[in-house]
Write a structure and sequence with these properties.
CATH architecture: 2-Layer Sandwich
Number of domains: 1
Distance between the termini: 5 Å
Number of helices: 2
Helix content: 10-25%
CATH superfamily: TonB
Order of helices and strands: EEEHEEHEEE
Strand content: 35-45%
Shape: elongated
Length: 112
């Protein structure tokens, strides 16, 4: 059996764009799990990826990129693809819709 997880589900945290590093909580509206790469399954490889991105005023993920990956070069594509599909409750700070920066998600790939 294959297993992937987004351990921070259902809430993540980010910094309100244009604020003085004000951190707010973001609530996910969906739960998407990345597809386990075939090569990793074939060779019995497990790993993890940390992805960072921004969230716009509508709750859409923008500009995801890999911060770290272990092992490198194997799980990044699946992680980015899954993170792009995440949808958040539109972020609000002080009764205003806001853009949020520096949201990070840890994704764990584990064979079971």
């Amino acid at each position: 059996m294959l297993f992937t997880s987004l351990p921070s589900f259902p809430a993540d945290f980010g910094i309100v764009k244009g604020s003085d590093n004000q951190v707010i909580e973001l609530v996910r509206m969906n739960k998407l799990l990345p597809e386990y790469p075939r090569q990793a399954v074939r060779y019995g490889i497990e790993g993890s990826v940390k992805v960072q991105f921004n969230v716009d005023t509508f709750g859409a993920v923008l500009d995801p990129f890999v911060v770290e990956s272990n092992p490198p070069g194997l799980f990044e594509r699946a992680s980015i693809k899954a993170v792009r599909k995440l949808i958040y409750q539109p972020p609000v700070f002080e009764d205003q819709a806001v853009n949020v920066e520096s949201v990070q998600v840890d994704i764990v790939f584990k064979l079971q």
